[in-house]
Amino acid sequence: MSRTTPIKFCNTSDRGTALEADRRNQFTDKELHTQVANHHEDLLSQATGIENLEGVLQMMQTRIHALQTAVDRIRSKVVEPYEKIVARTAQLRRLQGACDLLRRIIHYLFHGVDLSGIDIVEQDTMFIRRARKDIERQAQKMLHQGMETQNQTQVATSLQVFHNLGSLKETVEKVLSDCESNIRRNIKTALSVQLLPTTTANPMRGPGRASMPAPGNTAAFRATLWTNLEKLMDQLYATCGQIHHLQKVLSKKRDPVTHVFFMEELYKEKQKNILHCFWESLTYIVKEEFVSNANENTFIKQAFEGEYPKLLRSFNELWKRLEQFTVGMTSKPEQIQGPRYKEEEEDLKY
């Protein structure tokens, strides 16, 4: 049996396509060679530019990495403090809410309905009242010491306590009232005949005849009177300094919740400038007491009339010492003195 040999057929179209492709490849190679030969220098410069661009990109990548590292470092320094601030702010907000709630509860306990007889709260209510009285007593003592020594910390702390207790206005008014009472008492003491050298009672009672110095004691009487007046001027200066210090602290101290100055809280209550108000009261008290004592005691009146320049000089020296406090007054010194001061001069002069 014989093997049949397969017959191969040649496709002329495929051969033509292959030849055409070879021809075109040759043409393309020729054109590439021509372009490279014609633009050799341009291609080399572009290749060099690509290498430079790769260097620039590498440098930018390095800088970007350094920047990212710096950002991460800054983030680590900022994030933790920021989270602490957020936490502290939330705590402060809760504390303010708790303080406001406690303030409302205290106001309800002391100004609300009568809770006596309720066993569950009566004992705590009594404790709160005792604690309030003790706190008020200690704060009053601290305020008194702070004003005497002009210690801003003590005065500010005590005022904060009274503000928290809702009695700031009443406390300031009481301080002013106590200072006015002390001034009136000091004036009475300085002009008190009983405290001056030995005097003899005048049997003819009446205005200007209350008592007279014993014969031969006139010089000693006047010397003691003027010594007492010098001490009185020092006392007036010290008291004005305390009130000025109180006003300065009130003007600086803020409510920690509302951030309103304490002085503005007093203004809400239609409280005038306390130093101005106190100065008006002081001048009125001085006028009233000096005129009253001069009318009741002829010798004091004669001493004031005979040595009026000395009396006027004492008040002028006092005013010069008080000029440093006038910045806290709403009016000029002449306006604060007003007609009262002029009347006092006229009454003492005549």
TrEMBL record:
Signal peptide: none annotated. It is found in: Golgi apparatus membrane. One of its GO terms (biological process) is intra-Golgi vesicle-mediated transport. Residues 29-110 form the Conserved oligomeric Golgi complex subunit 5 N-terminal domain. Its main location: Golgi. Pfam families: COG5_C, COG5_N. It comes from the Eukaryota. Keywords: Golgi apparatus, Membrane. One of its GO terms (cellular component) is Golgi transport complex. Residues 115-319 form the Conserved oligomeric Golgi complex subunit 5 helical domain. This is Conserved oligomeric Golgi complex subunit 5. It comes from Stichopus japonicus.
